[in-house]
Amino acid sequence: MPTSPRLRVVVTGAATGLLAALASSGTLAPPAAATAPRATASQSRALQTDAQHAAAVASATAVATRSGRALGPRAAARPTRVTAVPSSVVAAIGSSVAARGSVAGGGTHPVRLQRKAVNGWATVATSSTRNGRYVLRVPTRSAGTQTLRVLAGATGSAVSRPFSVGVGAGNPRSVAYLTRPAPRWDPCRPITYRVNLARAPRGAAADVDRSIAKVSAATGLRFVKAGSTTVVPGSAGRDILDEYPRGTDLVVAYSRPGASGYLPRGSRTLGVGGAFFEQGTTAVRGREWHRILQGYLVVDGTQGLPGGFGPGNVSGYQGTWGQVLMHELGHVVGLDHPGVRDPRQIMHVETTRKPAVWGAGDLVGLRALGSASGCF
Fold this sequence. Notes:
Blueprint: E1 7-17, E2 21-22, E3 28-29, H1 39-46, H2 50-61, E4 65-66, E5 69-70, E6 81-82, E7 85-86, E8 90-92, E9 98-104, E10 110-117, E11 120-128, E12 133-137, E13 144-152, E14 158-159, E15 163-168, E16 183-184, E17 191-196, H3 204-219, E18 223-228, E19 250-255, E20 271-278, E21 282-284, E22 287-300, H4 321-332, E23 350-351, H5 360-368
Parallel strand pairs: 1-23, 8-15, 16-22, 17-18, 17-19, 19-22
Antiparallel strand pairs: 1-20, 2-3, 4-5, 6-9, 7-9, 9-12, 10-11, 10-13, 13-14, 13-15, 20-22, 21-22
């Protein structure tokens, strides 16, 4: 048990590799490979051309005339405010999701739905207002968490507050939490983390940072990297609160079996993630929660998984280090292995051969544990 009576630890975050079944021929036969979403194709279909946008602007801002007389400048009035609300915040791939809202300022205006990209914002849909209101279709043909906004007016003079829509494969009911009531971090406080790469494979640092970015995008939690550390969580034993460097909330460490209580000698576990949280609960927006105070993630750096976030090996241990890290970080923020089994979920009890992207059930759980549920 933890050393402090205020804390409780849940250690259910052991990720194991799923070995492909042995066929009668004596060779390893992999499970059916997941088909990676064709993000590029869907994006190209969703993106509007400059000509289409120009036509929409011209149509929406043209001054109506009757018998050769202008009806007035109302249609060209400058929009002052735009609202945007998605019809769903988590959606299955290919499902219908709309962004609806209103534009203040009078007249008819062009509106653009934009998705945040690496180098700025990209327009993915256009329309125009009718009676001050609009509907825009959110692209859902590829998996991922999208940050979106709506611009109104020919020059985008009014901009909505950004909002997120998560798109994933599989069963949205395939989700579970470490305990009831569920534990979660305070989303109004940054989570400071350090990384121990002493036994890490090549590319591990980038895999850790990218995995944490994926958790942040799906939850709204803010992570701050404080640097490196020599700490290996569990080195003093399982279920014991670790002594981290001052101001550190989470340590991610690559280790070996026998060096941590979470990876016993002879273990074939790929990784273990979890959290220490307050024994008591706190009510936030009418719901009780345990507040997480410290997180840990230990992975066996001696295992031969490929790095990155692709589908992984065709035979042998399935998945990638990216998939393992995302799975264990799911435990760190409060998710458990779902009772409703669905191999398409990252939180599935075993790693499987699939691209490392959140499934629909993962996204439902991550949203519930994040900023959408309010601050402590």
